[in-house]
């Protein structure tokens, strides 16, 4: 009889993260670390917890928490402390001595004023990795002006909103918090790089990521084309889906839906649509004319019929679906990306899991999103005596 195989370790097993983050930039990054096995200790305000817990979607909460909060805070334990209390600060610094990473995304200077800045944590662990996420950076023009840094504002400031939509439309925001997500994934990458550097070179360091520069970084193709061609690129009047790309790149209405068509030779799509004149058009100089003609021809075909013809011809195309349709396909396929958990209130939840597949150290759903301060005693008892814990409780209640 073959003995049962022991569970494999998680990739970040043994790594401990002290998490002061809120909204999406920080929590989405630290959830990824938690998914990969890190012990993430989320520090929240007593009573109300992180600000995003109360952010309603369509005016509703789930078991008293925001759907957005629940989406980004699994695999974490919560400790609720008043950061202005000296005893709370002392407890957190003691806790930090057992941690590998500290992550915060307050406005620049807030953590220093609380006595919880990089130098404070480095004093208790000299190889600590201290990560700061922000809207504009720690010491930039807009940071010094104390401007709020939020996803929509970053889309506006970087040019992303002006790249989206067609000519004549107002600047158009993306359909999700793309700057927050980009910043979060960049922050997680920075943390992983710093952990590897510490493993190899024995050093701690400060990691800084901000939404503004992370978003400019994902505009790398557009900015490279603009600067190196010394040209301006404008949104197409007919709806080419990128200001700097040529026909037929875009979305087309069919008899019964919509179809996305990516880059490809005009003579191929001309053949599929049985319109030789299309092949004579210049994909860049005549891009609006080409787009409008393809609009007319696509409107005469059913989505599946046109999709199959394009795919058979080697053209890149896909149907345009709603988010619900994409989700329902995942559910029907039994996708491991969907995870079922129970809210602290007893409400069943379904969340999107971690999209990273590791053959030997897979991610695991270990902890549901925590209630505010759910793990206070469990965490603080590691570094405080019973008397100190009692005194801290008393100070927090006063």
Low-confidence blocks of residues: none
Number of domains: 2
Strand order of the largest sheet: 3-2-1-4-5-6
- Which percent range describes the beta-strand content? 5-15%
**Which sequence of SSEs, written as H and E, runs from N to C?**
EHEHEHEHHEHHHHEHHEEHHHEHEEHH
What is the typical, i.e. mean, pLDDT? 94
CATH class of the largest domain: Alpha Beta
User: So what's the oligomer here?
Assistant: single chain
Tell me about the largest β-sheet. Answer: 6 strands, parallel
Total beta-strand segments: 11
What would you call the shape? Answer: elongated
Number of helices: 17
Account of the 3D structure:
The chain has 398 residues and is an alpha/beta fold. The chain folds into 2 domains: 16-218 and 354-397, Rossmann fold (3-Layer(aba) Sandwich); 222-320, formyl-coa transferase, domain 3 (2-Layer Sandwich). Helices cover 38% and strands 13% of the residues. It has helices spanning 25-35, 67-71, 86-96, 110-113, 118-124, 141-144, 151-158, 160-163, 178-201, 211-218, 220-228, 266-272, 287-298, 303-312, 323-333, 376-380, 386-397, and strands at residues 16-19, 39-44, 76-80, 101-104, 129-134, 205-210, 250-253, 258-261, 317-319, 338-342, 348-352. The longest helix is centred in the middle third of the chain and has 24 residues, at 178-201. The model has no long low-confidence stretch (mean pLDDT 94).
Salient structural properties:
single chain, 398 residues, alpha/beta, Rossmann fold, formyl-coa transferase, domain 3, six-stranded parallel β-sheet, three-stranded antiparallel β-sheet, 11 strands
